[in-house]
Amino acid sequence: MVQQRRAQWIPVGVIVLAVVIDLATPTDVTSAPLLMAAPVAAAPLLRLPGIIAIGALSMAVHAVLAWVDHTFGWQRGVANQLTLLAVTVLAVLINRTLEGQSARTRRARQVAAVAQTAVLPRPPSRLGELQIAARYIPAEDEAMIGGDLYVVQDTVHGVRVMVGDVRGKGLGAVSAVCADLGAFRYAADEAEDLPGLVTALEAALLREGGRRGGQEQEEGFTTALVAEFADGLEAVRIVNRGHPPPVLLDARGTATVLEPSQESPPLGIAALGTWSFPVDTFPFPPGSTLLCYTDGVTEARDEDGVFYDAAVRLPRLLRHRSLVGDPPAPAEILQLLIDDVARHTGGRVQDDQALLALHRPAREAAPLPGRTRV
Question: Do 100 and 152 reside in the same domain of the chain?
């Protein structure tokens, strides 16, 4: 926003430069061409009244300079004034064209946001003692609905969660997201355990790929993180199918990456072979927060190509945050993460980001996180 306000002064700066050049050079040197650049520079930066004001100011400045140099004749006076007028009209037309394109882009983004909300509703903020926050940040470089997803469901088997990323974008990705969500909603209630839930998801994706046919049948897949919180929230069981591993923040703000004990491929490619997938169990002590996200976070790069590392950067943010206020809530942690990713990339959202934070309120001192395998 600050940079945008500064950029709006560029046309005025061009006029000031033209005045300086004209006064510092002989009278047979004119700065009229530079003055003509001012309305053109204003076209993408200012609104219609501002463009007209810059054009009028350029004409007035040229008239004064020509009068001071005693060169205001037909060739160097009136002709230049008519040219400045024509350039101002051209700048107005350019501005109207750009404004129309910007309005169409905004409408497309609004439609995409509404569709994304309809397809991917926000989970409840609380299920029992488990506090939940979710955010979806679309990529800025295209107004298309992405394939990132999250879903949280309370079942008789405990709270079950999925965070995933469907290959591709647009309507094809939305179709796959709907298939994933529908399959999860059903299987989360019916499956006795996580292997059964993941198997049901795999079968649903294979059926969806068969209906879509073509390349999607061969290469359509979803990276997924499926988790289950048992009663009492003492532990979280996780199946990771080719997805970025989550980060566990304990009550002291220490971050631990919950790597899978065995790498497994994404969902939806069972037709290419059969793979086993472990169910890893991690302690989830009081005061802990489980952060799940898609590769829009892990693959965010700075200008030097360095990838973002939430496990390294988040503890620093939380330590600073704890010095200036109360411990952050799950939604605040997600906002800290989103803002820090934006700083890391220089404000460029390079890919869609789906983020989910699940927090167990602190009631006692939290032990260090570890992992067992079942």
Answer: no
pLDDT, position 86: 93
Task: Please say whether the beta carbons of 364 and 303 come within 8 A.
Answer: no
DSSP 270: G
Helical residues (DSSP H) of the chain, grouped into ranges: 2-7, 10-24, 32-42, 48-69, 79-119, 170-190, 194-212, 214-219, 295-298, 310-324, 330-345
The C-alpha atoms of residue 305 and residue 190 are separated, in whole angstroms, by 44
pLDDT digits (tens, 9 = 90+) for 48-99: 999 999 999 999 998 888 888 777 665 667 888 889 999 999 999 999 998 8
DSSP-based three-state secondary structure for 44: coil
Is 116 inside a domain boundary?
no
307 CB contacts (<8 Å, ≥6 apart)?
Answer: 298, 299, 300, 301
Q: What is the pLDDT of residues 167-210, one digit of tens each?
A: 766 566 777 788 888 889 999 999 999 999 999 888 877 776 66
Q: Which domain holds residue 187?
A: 121-373
User: Which one, of 361, 215, 200, 356, lies nearest residue 293 by Cα?
Assistant: 356
Q: If you ran DSSP here, which 8-state letter would residue 301 be given? A: B
Rounded Cα gap, residues 331 and 346, in angstroms? 22
**Domain match, 181 and 220 both:** yes
User: Sign (positive/negative) of CA torsion 62, 65, 68, 69?
Assistant: negative
Same domain, 289 and 217: yes
What is d(CA 247, CA 251) in angstroms, rounded to the nearest whole number?
13
pLDDT: which is higher, 351 or 220 = 351
